Amino acid sequence: MGYLAVVVAAAVGYIFGAVWYMTLSKPWIEASGIEVGADGKPVNSSMLPFILSAIAMLAVAGMMRHIFAMANIDTALKGLMSGAGIGLFFISPWIMINNAYGGRPFKLTIIDGGYAFFGCILMGLVLTLM
Fold first, then answer.
1. Which of 39, 41, 43, 60 has the fewest CB atoms within 10 Å, i.e. the most exposed one?
2. Residues 69-86: pLDDT tens digits?
């Protein structure tokens, strides 16, 4: 599990996120309360969220790699289960807390938490297969 595995896992998580949010764009936009134009696209869109997402995916994959190495998580099944645990029990609850205090609909937590759950599963799998 080297640096290449971290980069690949981050890329997989990022690409999965693109597919996830393109598929769920309408309910996500509705739940998040983002203002959209007549074309249905966000009004104030910029590249910054995409850049920050890529950096965040590198950070998550890097820390997952570190945890996996320390805990001897070295098989695909262990990577899958550990990724599921990280997504479901670390990241998703934090998303829920932020959305609850922000008064956001629970639907947003389901969409964003689902991405964290499945994305971490994929990243954990990649980290243990490489």
1. 39
2. 999 999 999 999 999 999
